[in-house]
Design brief:
This is Peptide synthase. InterPro entries: AMP-binding_CS (IPR020845), AMP-dep_synth/lig_dom (IPR000873), ANL_N_sf (IPR042099), ATP-dep_AMP-bd_enzyme (IPR050237). This protein is α/β, with parallel strands linked by helices and about 550 residues long. Helix content is about 30%, strand content about 25%. Helix 1 runs antiparallel to helix 2 and helix 2 packs across helix 3.
Length: about 550
């Protein structure tokens, strides 16, 4: 059975060919399933498209988009919620060779508008609220000439998707894009700096599909619950049924666990993507209720390091042989590494809790990883003497076919992130870590978050692990007050849910005593308690240490 994409010739790579192949191999299997409401008994009603239907629907949309000028190379803002239309539109845009521009709405309207303006898009396809926004803030959409509404058009002009869609299906002659041709612009969350538009080529998407399939042994016919919309787009290409969860994708930390567990049971979900925040919320509920998920054989967690205790908690819901895989990567390079909960809980957990960093596994096939000395400036050319000694902490640099080549019109950021190496390049992840003798990567935090005192450099993840061992601590965050080189290390503490913070003076003393048990935390003499850490909008898991630094600076001055 052939499950690799058909290609017009050796130089043509278009990620939409995976869908066309799946439509031929398993035409009547469900490709996308979406909840549409509940009946009078409270049971969820679902709508779906089979692989054949999704292929036909995206053909009809592709022809219609082409007819109105949304064609090859046209940058197109896509502001549509996870839905059947969302999937059909994305593959239609790939088929015509247009370039979807995708921005996380949860980053805030102001930042999102700046990203959209920066993309200099020529078309906008969006739900009614998106068009309300563009009529209220037209200067951010000055380059857009084609407007398409998904749903009812209100007081604004432009087209509707129903009018654009070609009524009579004919196989659409897919654009013969090359591997280096731009396929999409995906914006980073901007959790450690300005959000940047990342160039995704068809070759990068193709490599991701192949390597994700091989790394996790995914087979056609599996059923996925992707709680992050962009990961859902891989499902049709992998031959998996995508079950769109009933949740706000910008608030995974506040998801209703019952709805997630209900969807798994309704469809026999075999694979699930979950950020650490969602993993914690659903796992805590499931453990309390004694719930088991017998159909789930694989959980993939990414977006931020998943604490071993979080992994152990969710694992209580899984049956024998099912694993939680923690992945490491970024918008610019995804995935980089992965390994399973069996190895985490039996081997690396005890080292992480002692301050070795968070192990994120071994590099996946097609990726090379090097640890280079820490530097905040650009590095123009690769030389092997950039690499640090074995076991030493440095910046993680990666090279491989799923590593993106650059940012959209950001040459300064390209210079800071890319190192030329002959005809290829290395991408600097902006993360710090080290590699052990087994070839595993140990993540130690963001480079920009390191705390540099007069005596030493402190890394966030190892130091925080010492404090996270306290039973009342939900999570901690190390920040540096003052100028680098003369930083004052401050440990911010968020208590467990439901902890009212009684006896804080005694607790503070306990934490300071805990700091003295490890050489890496002995210089930390300031503890601050914070009600709820600010976190990233994509996964609700990465801590906004920049905001905490400002907050801690004010608190320290007021003491």
């Amino acid at each position: 059975m052939q499950t690799t994409p058909d290609k017009a010739d050796g130089s043509t790579v278009n990620v939409a060919t995976y869908l066309r192949t799946m439509a031929r191999v398993q035409p009547y299997k469900r490709a996308v399933v979406s909840p549409v409401g509940r009946d009078r008994h409270g049971r969820v009603a679902y709508s779906h498209l089979t692989f054949r239907q999704l292929d036909i629907e995206s053909d009809c949309l592709a022809q219609g988009l082409d007819n109105v000028g949304v064609s090859r190379g046209v940058r197109t803002i896509l502001m549509v919620k996870p839905s059947l239309d969302f999937f059909a539109l994305v593959f239609a845009l790939f088929k015509v060779g247009a370039v979807p521009v995708v921005v996380d709405p949860g980053m805030g309207i102001g930042r999102m508008l700046n990203c959209l303006a920066e993309s200099r898009a020529q078309a906008l396809i969006g739900i009614p609220p998106a068009h309300v926004l563009r009529t209220m803030a037209p200067r951010y959409f000055k380059t857009v000439t084609t407007f398409i509404t998904v749903g009812s058009r209100w007081f604004w002009g432009g087209l509707t998707l129903n009018r654009v869609r070609q009524r009579h299906w004919e196989p659409y002659p897919m654009a013969a894009t090359g591997p280096d041709e731009i396929a999409a612009i995906l914006f980073t969350t901007g959790s450690t700096g300005p959000a940047k538009g990342v160039f995704y080529t068809h070759g990068v998407f193709d490599a991701q599909v192949r390597n994700i399939k091989a790394q996790f042994d995914i087979t056609p016919g599996e059923i996925d619950l992707p709680t992050f919309p962009l990961f859902a787009l891989f499902d049709p290409a992998l031959g998996m049924t995508a079950i769109i969860p009933d949740m706000d994708p910008t608030q995974p930390a506040r998801v209703n666990p019952e709805k997630i567990i209900e969807a798994i049971g309704d469809h026999g979900v075999t694979n699930m993507f979950a950020s650490p925040a969602l993993l914690n919320r659903v796992g805590r509920y499931g453990k309390e209720k004694g719930i088991k998920l017998p159909t789930v054989k694989r959980v993939i967690s990414a977006g931020a390091p998943a604490a071993p205790a979080n992994i152990e908690q969710f694992s209580a819901m899984l049956t024998d042989g099912a694993l939680i895989h923690t992945g490491y990567g970024a918008t610019e390079a995804m995935p980089v590494s992965s390994f399973g909960s069996d190895e985490i809980l039996s081997e690396t957990r005890k080292l992480s809790e002692k301050g070795f960093g968070m192990c994120v596994g071994r590099p996946i096939a097609g990726i090379e990883v090097r640890i280079i000395r820490i530097s905040d400036g650009p590095i123009a050319q690769w030389t092997d003497d950039l690499c640090v000694a074995d076991g030493e902490t440095g910046e993680i640099a990666v090279r491989g076919e799923q590593v993106t080549r650059g940012y959209f019109e950001r040459p300064r950021d390209d210079a800071l992130a890319k190192i030329q190496d002959g005809d290829g390049f290395w991408h600097r992840m902006g993360d710090l870590g080290w590699m052990d003798k087994k070839g595993r990567i140990w993540f130690c935090g963001r480079k920009s978050h390191r705390v540099v005192t007069e005596a030493a450099t402190l890394f966030t993840i190892p130091c925080e692990a010492i404090f996270n061992n306290h039973p009342r601590v939900f999570r901690s965050a190390l920040v540096g007050i003052g100028t680098p080189g003369k930083h004052r290390p401050v440990m911010c503490i968020e208590l467990e849910t439901g902890d009212k913070g009684s006896g804080k003076k005694a607790l503070e003393q306990e934490l300071l005593e805990l700091a003295q048990t490890s050489p890496i935390t002995q210089s930390i003499q300031t503890i601050l308690f914070h009600r709820a850490f600010p976190v990233d909008i994509r996964h609700n898991s990465k801590i906004f240490r920049e905001k905490l630094t400002v907050w801690a600076g004010k608190k320290v001055k007021s003491v």
